[in-house]
Design goal:
Blueprint lengths: L1 H21 L5 H13 L3 H14 L1 H4 L5 H19 L5 H17 L3 H25 L1 H4 L4 H171 L4 H135 L1
Helix pairs in contact: 2-9, 3-5, 6-9, 7-9, 9-10
């Protein structure tokens, strides 16, 4: 570990020596750096104050040093760094300071053009100080200021290059980190997309297989449904014909019901007339009963007269024998009349009883006929409604047969479309396979591109 650190330190020292050598800051030139420092260090505070005052007056620059405290801090760090530079102290601290300046400029977002322009202004001010000192100082008056100006230029160029290199190195590191981050994110996202795409392709392939199977089943079902629809259409036509026959039968039933209703009405009228005749017969029977009763009374009186006549004939003796025979015959006649009237009364009572019973039955028959007539009316209304319903059903059956025929045609069209969908499903399956292969190729090419990009 220590050997590695020592080797790294030696490599850094060689790199710094190469930098100084590249700018010719070795030997006499490096010694002249101290001479330049003796001239400039007494004026350093004045130069930096003027510079940061100019920064505060320039809005574009002041945006990066918005407060006085920040400008004072930057001026102090700048002075410490320039003291090392102008005393020819090109140590590790100097190089790290120059690099830190570049990194800070990159961190705060200061454009490299602002820094270079500012350094040019400061360099011009420092050159002016050297020219003034050479002109008025007796020690430098006889010397050519060109070597001093050249040394100042070399030092300023070195310092600018170190800061700018650190700026660009930090920027490159940020860019590389950002590029690596973007690459990782892109690779992860591409990987995720490819994985999702691959999964989706497998799912889509399974779906395409299932779709092909379902389409085959749907095609079979559509063919079966088309056959069933045709049979339904034929059945619907048969139903329509049967309903027409039913409608004709209902019409015949309606006529029969109407005839039955008419017959019921006639029967009702006859029953009413019979009831009235029975009432008349009942009244006549009662009148006959009264006449028979009157005859019975006469027969009784005749019988009494015959008895009285017999008694009187007996009293008369032989002279009354002929009258007694007459009285006897009258008595016998009165008894036969009494027996006849009794028999007539019995028959009249039976006639009256049968008449009352017949009247009651005729009244019941009238009620039954009335109910039959009511039922006939209800049947006639129901049959009328059934006729209308049959007509509607017939119309709908015709419409159903027509619609079923259209449905059968539509199902045949659907069957053709299902068949075409099956072809599309096979095409989709092929396309899924192609996309899946291309997704794998895309993933490989993206990874190869990112590898090449990182190596560039």
């Amino acid at each position: 570990m220590r050997n590695r650190e020592a080797a790294s330190a030696m490599a850094e020292n060689r790199k710094r020596s190469a930098r100084l050598q590249a700018y010719g800051l070795q030997g006499d030139t490096r010694d002249r750096v101290k001479e330049v420092g003796k001239i400039l260090l007494p004026h350093l505070d004045e130069v930096l104050s003027d510079f940061y005052e100019e920064i505060s007056d320039t809005p574009d620059w002041n945006a990066f040093f918005p407060t006085q405290a920040l400008r004072d801090h930057a001026r102090q760090k700048q002075k410490q760094h320039w003291v090392l530079m102008l005393t020819s102290d090109f140590s590790q601290q100097y190089f790290e300071g120059a690099e830190k300046i570049g990194k800070v400029h990159n961190r705060i977002g200061l454009p490299i053009s602002f820094y270079t322009a500012a350094y040019a202004r400061v360099g011009l001010a420092l050159q002016g100080i050297i020219m003034n000192e050479v002109g008025r100082n007796a020690f430098f008056r006889r010397r050519d200021p060109t070597p001093l100006m050249d040394t100042l230029s070399r030092v300023l160029m070195l310092d600018t290059e170190l800061a700018n290199s650190a700026f660009f190195a930090a920027q490159a590191a940020q860019y590389e980190n950002r590029l690596n981050e973007i690459s990782r994110n892109f690779e992860d996202e591409i990987g995720r997309v490819v994985d999702v795409l691959s999964t989706s392709m497998h799912q889509l392939d399974d779906a395409a297989n299932g779709m092909t199977t379902e389409i085959s089943r749907a095609r079979q079902g559509a063919d079966s449904l088309s056959d069933n629809a045709s049979r339904i259409a034929t059945s619907a036509q048969s139903v329509a014909s049967a309903i027409e026959e039913l409608s004709a039968s209902i019409t015949s039933i309606t006529q029969d019901v109407n005839s039955a209703a008419t017959a019921s009405a006639n029967a009702m009228e006859e029953a009413t007339a019979s009831s009235e005749q029975l009432e008349s017969l009942q009244a006549a029977a009662e009148e006959i009963d009264e006449v028979v009763n009157m005859i019975a009374q006469i027969a009784k009186q005749t019988n009494l007269l015959a008895v009285n006549a017999t008694v009187e004939a007996t009293r008369a003796g032989d002279a009354g024998k002929g009258f007694a025979v007459v009285a006897f015959e009258i008595k016998a006649l009165a008894e036969r009349i009494s027996q006849a009237t009794s028999s007539i009364n019995d028959r009249i009572r039976r006639i009256q009883s049968e008449t009352r019973l017949m009247s009651t039955r005729i009244s019941g028959i009238g009620d039954c006929v009335e109910r039959v007539r009511s039922f006939s009316d209800s049947i006639r209304v129901a049959v009328t409604e059934q006729t209308q319903a049959a007509q509607h059903i017939s119309q709908h059956a015709d419409s159903t047969a027509s619609s079923t025929t259209e449905i059968a045609q539509m199902i045949r069209d659907v069957s053709h479309r299902v068949e075409r969908s099956g072809d599309t499903s096979l095409t989709l399956k092929d396309a899924v396979g192609t996309v899946s292969d291309e997704a794998g190729t895309l993933s490989q090419r993206v990874r190869a591109f990112l590898t090449a990009l990182r190596a560039a």
